[in-house]
């Protein structure tokens, strides 16, 4: 049997390359104890590692030269070539297609010791859904249940952020903000591949601060990890909890890399007898769209909410209507009206 196998990133062993000789014209190849200790009777196996792109020809023949018609020779090749796409989300659930040869409906696919259930499959393709994993580069192992053969694909899948990915600040600079009030501009970061352009989705970004601030991405907490969206973006609004300067930091794949890439912004908290903070300072809507927006404000005094204060609203530009011209603050110091457009 002759078969051409086109390989990627593999090296061709001398035992299986070059011009195939006439069966029986060469001395019988040296045997190896492993060939006689396989769990399946009358089976032998050739394992090969290939590290560069090349064409590999595999020949199987009867070196005894018996040529008996009552001997049945069966051969099977299992080979994993590539995975597409090459990236998956830390959260899991990314559809992946494995291309190769000799794949079966019961072929086992594993990564990081986790067996991945197969979706539709064929002899040349397997469809899987990536499992939840931490950021990093992973191998993928394909195994035959019956013959016992396997194919290991090294470093073919990047989950979340890779070691050469980058994190950049998109925005996050704010004017001094009242203690207890939310910043009008969120701290927004972008994660990109090593080329500095391609966005990386599903990468983990840890937001933290010193001293602590309230982060909207953390439900008001001061430390949490979120995943980048399909555009490679992670974002959080900030609420200063104390007067003075605070450093807010975003770290990329902090749980994986000993020295993670990080970026930071500075937030300054202020306090006075009467402060007003808008919770929804800006919103983008499509032209001609009919929408209803909630306009919320928070009244503070020395960082504490003010109850029963009147907040007046007025449209200074554009065409829209307000549900009310004024609103009273609640126990949390919040007042809101609706804008109809």
General description of the model:
- The N and C termini lie far apart (73 Å).
- The protein has no helices and 28 strands.
- The strands form 8 sheets. Strands 4-11-10-6-7 form a 5-stranded mixed β-sheet, with no helix packed on it. A 5-stranded mixed β-sheet has the order 13-21-20-15-17, with no helix packed on it.
- Helix content is 0%, strand content 43%.
- It is mainly beta and 341 residues long.
- The N terminus is likely disordered.
- It folds into 4 domains: 75 residues, no CATH class; 82 residues, Immunoglobulin-like (Sandwich); 105 residues, Sandwich (Immunoglobulin-like); 66 residues, Immunoglobulin-like (Sandwich).
- A hairpin with a 2-residue loop joins β23 and β24.
- It is elongated.
Number of strands: 28
**Percent of sequence in beta strands:** 35-45%
The 3D shape can be described as: elongated
CATH topological fold name of the largest domain: Immunoglobulin-like
In the CATH scheme, the class of the largest domain would be Mainly Beta
Short note summarizing the structure:
By secondary structure, the protein is mostly beta strands. It is built from no helices and 28 strands.
From the structure above, extract its key features:
five-stranded mixed beta sheet; mainly beta; disordered N terminus; single chain; Immunoglobulin-like; 341 residues; elongated; 4 domains
Topology, element by element:
Elements: E1 2-7, E2 54-59, E3 79-84, E4 87-88, E5 95-101, E6 108-111, E7 114-116, E8 118-121, E9 125-129, E10 136-143, E11 150-159, E12 166-171, E13 177-178, E14 187-192, E15 204-210, E16 213-215, E17 223-227, E18 233-236, E19 238-240, E20 244-252, E21 262-270, E22 275-278, E23 292-301, E24 304-305, E25 310-312, E26 321-322, E27 326-328, E28 334-340
Parallel strand pairs: 4-11, 13-21
Antiparallel strand pairs: 1-2, 3-5, 5-9, 6-7, 6-10, 8-9, 10-11, 12-14, 14-18, 15-17, 15-20, 16-19, 20-21, 22-23, 23-24, 23-28, 25-27, 26-28
